[in-house]
Design a protein that fits this description.
Residues 738-829 form the Pilus assembly protein C-terminal domain. By secondary structure, this protein is mainly β. Among the domains are: 31-146, Ubiquitin-like (UB roll); 277-346, Outer membrane usher protein (Immunoglobulin-like, Sandwich); 752-831, PapC, C-terminal domain (Immunoglobulin-like). It contains four helices and 59 strands.
Length: 847
Amino acid sequence: MDKWTGGIKASALGIFFISYSSLGAEKQTSVKLGEYIIPGIFANALYQGMNVPVFIKYNGDTENKKSRQKIADAALAIDANGFLIREVTLADLPNNTELSPATKAMITGLKDKHFTDGTTLRLGGDAALNLDIKSFYLELTVNQQALAASIIPRSNLLGESTSTDLSSVLNYTVGSYYNKYANRNNGSSFITLDNTTSLRENHVNLNGSLYGLGTGDTSSNLYRAMYERDYQGRRLALGMVDTWNLQSIASMSALNSSRIYGVSYGNKSSTQIEDNTLSLTPVTVFLPSAGEVHVYREGRLLSIQNFAMGSYEIDTTRLPFGVYNVDVQVVVNGKQVSSRIAQINKTFSRKSSLTGEVAWQVFGGMLQYHRMDYRRDFGRNLGKKETWLGGGAAALTLPYLSGVSLKSTLYGFDHTGVNESEVNVSLNEAVSFNQQVMTATDASWKSISTLNLSIPDGYGSLWGSREFSHIGDNLPLEKGDFYSAGATLNLRRLTPYLGSLSLSRTVNNYTGNQYTNVDYSQTLYNTRYATIRLRTGIQRYYYNNSNDDGLQDKYVNIELSMPLATWLSAGVSSENGNMLANASIRKRFDDSVITHAGASLAKRIKGGGGDNRYTADEYSLNGFASYDTKYNAGTVAVTHTSGNNTNLSLSSQGSVAWSGRDVALSKDSQRSGVLVNTDFTEKGTVAAQVNGRTYALSGKSNFIALPPYAKYTVELMNDKNAEDSVDIVSGRKNSVVLYPGNVSVVNPEIKQLVTVFGRVRHADGKLAVNTDIHNHIGKTQTDEKGEFAMDVDKKFPFITLLEKNGGVCEAELDLQDARGAVWLGDILCIRQNQTARQEEKESEHVY
């Protein structure tokens, strides 16, 4: 008996000798099975039934070794007819071998089944249970047909919210402008508010705006007032909603700016988190024993993955995007046992990895919309109308080619039925096609076709789009008849002395407008010190089927980019016959309230000839600055021209969050987040790493605005960009699940530490050598020079000196502006518990 099997037997015997030691009064008779004699106390345990592990092994494994791969637990027992299986429970272990449904049903269905020949129990033709009585080792031997591939889930359902209290997030956007033109001036401001209040997975969202602030013509508008519960793959929404909140599967373009009072329900849920980094079609492998899978692309090793015995899908999340073939090799004990060619299908354009599952939504309610008639050359407003609205939407993704997605919405309102359908086909990595069709019972229809082509080997891309439409009797649709085409060509693939060329052309046959654009850019000089680029282009416009030469703009710019985030540009341009000289500068600032700033100057050097309709200003000056603070972020811009015309604008955004008694502000705008109470009384920072992104926290409290419907890991640590040192006593790592309106509050215990250096003297001026020093977080001792070094918590800036003769001294240290480390100089210690004083008023920081 080897050590391992002997260990199993010893463990089992030990357990049941203890369990049945109280049965001493009971008759214990030994049992003989074949050539083995089972002791009486162990036999009594077997009569009652005992749990033993079941290990799985492939019957084609030629190595005569016992498996160490557990698959289940079995209740083993004996009776007058020998050994039997009371029941089997499959083990729920990570990365476990997956059995086929038929084999799984036979194993879990075993109830009081005896072993044939005493040690074997057949489970159909693909599996068998074998018992080694000597070691009580129970093994499930299977062939490949008894196994199923362990497929990596393409989606996961978000768990319960970790925010248990009522909470709210208010996002705001503020805009303001001032114009001065021809001795006239005007200005106005607006504010847009979006508030989401939640209790766990339920939330109410209000969205509205105030316009004309600061003027005599102030107005307001409420755009959304909606209750929503999106949980466990089902979404319910009701209230005043827009078309996207009503259903988010396919388009509803027949509805113009409308107000909808309705309800929506379906399985199109934000709680179903999809993984689009996996190959659309799984790549599976079979391993006859534990081993490795090597993935090669054109002879280059991309991945090595380890698996136990069984059938598995290889993890393709870390493989490059694209559609390409790979060589998949299975290696066991250093030898290649199988190899095959498989296709990796990962395209950036794919929006879903769930294949064969239908997403659906049904909706209904009351619609208030603007009735418009576009059957003439101009739109005619027929006024508002209130009517019914109802319908449903569905979507399906199929694993054909590189992905085929189907979407359709069927809805009706105002005695008109509408169907909008969309098909998106990715033929391969290079070619994709999209077709959108709308038809209605009032004879309206619309068709939009789009084709995208990527030229192989990085030479560029081509695209084209065509739209037709027909206006019926009721729907507020505008006539559409246009096509667009374009290309981007990477000429550097031909020669390193060329750059990139972009071309596009749009023609609207209904309005007669035409637009042609050509742009070329090239890097002229590139070193570690500077980069010089050339940009040139031409645009030509034709309006309303006019036969003239249209409008034409041209430009040539030289751009200079330097380290320290500085960008310069200079050149000439032509706008409708006006020749302009242009110069621009932009700079990015690190560790500053001002994050970006820039200015540009345009000077007219040639007039527009005799056509005064397009005369440009003599000059125009533009400037902007973007700022970013802890509580708010925004941009200020100003424009001034030679005609003494001035325009000044400001845009600003941020958010306010509360949960219970906790309130905090943020510069970012999201509908959920994490509120961290750092409780710093003085200057200092600590870093919070949230799913790999780092945030600097300071002050009493901080709100980290985060997108909802996600799970986050929040880990607090020292900020490597600051001189502060902190000790995170508790609450270092937190896991949160956020739904809209959720504010998860984290209350860590953080100590702001300062490493204090100093020298201690007695009242008579002598050095306090080899003296013990204590504070509430540690202790140290002065050296022969009376000097010491120790960490001090800024909340408790005290040290206590304990002299050998019993004298005690407590010193309160001035650490208000100290960060990192500080030299305090001489500290005088007075006996009889008098307070020491810091002799040197100045302190010197040491880093």
